[in-house]
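Q: I have 460 residues here and want to know how they pack in 3D. Can you give me a structure?
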Amino acid sequence: MHVGHLRSTIIGDTISRLFEFLGHDVERVNHLGDWGTQFGMLIAHLEDMFPNYATESPPISDLQMFYKEAKKRFDGEPDFKQRAYKRVVDLQGGNEEIIKCWKMIVDISMAEFNKIYNRLDIKLTPCGESFYQSRMEGIVKRLDAGGHLQASEGCKLLFVEGEEVPMMIVKSDGGFTYDTSDLAALHYRMVDERADMCVYVVDSGQSLHFNLLFSAAKKVGLVRDDQKVVHAGFGVVLGEDRKKFKTRSGDTVKLKDLLDEGLERAEKKIRAKEEDKKAKGGSGLLTEEEIIACRDAVAYGCIKFADLTCTRTNDYVFSFDKMLDDRGKTAVYLLYALTRIRSIARNAGYTREQLLAHAKDSPIVLEHEAELKLAKVLLRFPEVIEEIAETLQPHTLCNYLYDISTVFTYFYDKCYCIEKSRETGEVVKVHMNRLLLCEASAQVMEKCFELLGIKTVSRM
């Protein structure tokens, strides 16, 4: 997986979490390109590089590099290109040996994908193009029987009123296309699975294709009037030079390398903060376990938040320096703000359970204008969730999370939650209404983080 897979994974996860929170039954489908020419290419290259693959598991540690090698041969060696096409035919024809080879490559891919998904705490159901191969013939027969296809130079095309180009359903050689596969997939989701809504989280460069797909599906009756299909498009990830994000050598950035660098940078920054604490007397030092938990939360959280805080349809500039800044609208700042809010109750000697029990027995009385201001922001949570469910724009939730933090800071500056003796430092008075407001703020912030797929920590 490379950095190009980052946005669809993170945005799709947040949209899924949101609809699950609203009580919907969500199927998180990872639509994999596990069929066609690229796999014919990989199979042919595997046969050459590891002729004993059937009896000895090939030691492919870098599938991305393996693909680049195969693609270079495909583009530069006519004989290899022809053999790759032959392997596609063998694959589609059900050749047992080639199917075995194909499964081996798919398994290697999935093992690597799952390592990334596990690190990012993302749950997906893989369902590749191969799943729809047997369903394509059925969709073609349905379209033919309905009189929707037109012959043109040996091809079968589906024209849609208002669209500039038709869908190519059957090629002149009798083969199927991505259009056929996508229609078969949509048929399965909307007719067989009876989905009420289908959201495609794919980059905005595919918007014309999805407009055509959805229009065609409605024309031929694959999507009912009471069903909804949506393309949640997104912009690309840019480097700080505002060009497509790549390594210094010009290669695509591997997602694993990106996450590893995030961990390294986050841990370095956290340990530097701990050294500062030691120099100032050693108060509040984190344990080694807390440092690692904090590192993971900050590293993965900052990558997710930086992506989600941008308007989904815009491109965004990837910068670790900005992501890990503990000032402004960043995951680091907001995670730290949450730990500060949680520390107020701890300093007062109250557990979360005690506060919740107290809230059940006593109403919260709001008197100070800062208390009212904070309460009003917290009460916006349902309308924020409803707005995102309609627009599928996660940045709205990021903005709301930052609003809570900003207004809470104002509230905390204006209102004492606990009062301590100047002589002994002991707590002499607890303002319970304000402590309950702190608890409410923390709970709403934690739910926002959860919906964004960001783990929180108790101390930073």
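Q: Anything worth noting?
A: The longest helix spans residues 255-279. Residues 242 and 317 are 7 Å apart (CA to CA).
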